[in-house]
């Protein structure tokens, strides 16, 4: 088995979409976290998956049957990615000072490159993370350049040169 450092270095070379996954608590408060593991899973039914650390405070609000929003960040939203990546401590929330709205009953970050909402279908054990499988109910995409993460830095997609 490879060690943690080798694994981390290997995976840092994999470009990942940057999203902010959101939920609304029973008391109406918004919750969210930066997630870079969003992946399409199935066309029929429309399923996506993403992983959350078992210690994530967001996980308590995303049990099977719960609604979830996924804001696919645009290249101009690096600051939001950093804000929602921090572990929150103390009064207030990660949403303090952030422009957001409610869409389909979920926290929505305007000007994102894309947005989707759905219901958590199930949790799958993933070691120190939990993989969430989500059935999508609504979605919107835009032409905004996406924010990606690779080699421990934020960037965006650029057309690739054609291999000869």
Automatic annotation (TrEMBL):
Flavin reductase like domain: residues covered: 11-156
Matching SMART domains: Flavin_Reduct (SM00903)
Cross-referenced InterPro entries: Flavin_Rdtase-like_dom, NADH-dep_flavin_reductase, Split_barrel_FMN-bd
Record has Transmembrane as a keyword: no
Matching SUPFAM superfamilies: FMN-binding split barrel (SSF50475)
Key words of the record: Oxidoreductase
Record keyword Oxidoreductase present: yes
Gene3D superfamilies: Electron Transport, Fmn-binding Protein, Chain A (2.30.110.10)
PANTHER family (UniProt xref): FLAVIN REDUCTASE, FLAVIN-DEPENDENT MONOOXYGENASE, REDUCTASE SUBUNIT HSAB
UniProt record similarity statement: Belongs to the non-flavoprotein flavin reductase family.
Name used for this protein in its record: Flavin reductase family protein
Organism for this UniProt entry: Streptomyces javensis
């Amino acid at each position: 088995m490879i060690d943690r450092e080798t694994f981390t270095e290997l995976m840092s070379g994999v470009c990942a979409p940057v999203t902010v996954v959101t939920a609304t608590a029973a008391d109406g408060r918004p919750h969210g976290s930066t997630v870079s593991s969003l992946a399409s899973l199935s066309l029929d039914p429309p399923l996506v998956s993403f992983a959350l650390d078992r210690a994530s405070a967001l996980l308590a609000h995303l049990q099977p049957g719960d609604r979830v929003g996924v804001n696919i960040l645009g290249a101009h939203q690096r600051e939001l990615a950093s804000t929602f990546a921090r572990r929150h401590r103390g009064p207030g929330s990660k949403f303090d000072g952030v422009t957001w709205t409610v869409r389909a009953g979920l926290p929505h970050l305007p000007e994102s490159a894309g947005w989707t909402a759905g219901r958590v279908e199930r949790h799958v054990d993933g070691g120190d993370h939990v993989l969430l499988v989500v059935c999508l109910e609504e979605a919107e995409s835009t032409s905004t350049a996406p924010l990606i993460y690779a080699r421990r830095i934020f960037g965006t997609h650029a057309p690739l040169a054609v291999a000869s």
